[in-house]
Description:
It is a single chain. Helix content is 24%, strand content 31%. The chain is α+β, with helices and mostly antiparallel strands. The chain has an 8-stranded antiparallel beta barrel with strand order 1-2-8-6-7-4-3-11. It is globular, with a radius of gyration of 21 Å. It starts with a helix and ends with a strand.
Amino acid sequence: xxxxxxxxxxxxxxxxxxxxxxQEAQQQRGTVEGPKMVALKTSRGSIVxxxxxxxxxxxxxxxxxxxxEGFYNGTIFHRVIPEFMIQGGxxxxxxxxxxxxxxxxxxxxxxxxxxxxxxAMARQPAPDTATSQFFINQRDNDSLxxxxxxxxxxxxxxxxxxxxxxxxxxxxxxxxxxxxxxxxPVEAVVIESAALVSSK
Length: 200
């Protein structure tokens, strides 16, 4: 009995040591399980976004691909409508549009709503046309939500966890028309960098 107890205790100790070692290694590699977070450093302040990978795997994967490629660095919030949303991720200053990867599946039926502080994919009128552009809802926008058989909706894939005051400041900037584009900030609001950061 004593031998069995000793063996069990020894095995438990080894398991704990292995588990601790694995967790430490994951922390060093930055792979500890948890929600993925992306920090947008803008010319008006920083915004931190928690991504909903489980609910929107295709959309989050697409967004992270652009982040990891540095695609968003130097892009602008090119469409700003107060009490509605701020949109970016496709143009650089001067309203020059960047080349993107192919469009993705619309995951708006994932049950997530376009509430204040959520981030969703911008798209053309057809459902499966989102590429790199996204928007952050400044208020609850029920009209953008998926309704089965009625509206394809806009796919929510994360939420702002830090920096909604920055979103509000951006939404309040003065806008103008530039060529065919309306609601363009007079002074460019630049996404200086977009980077994956450790979850809290």
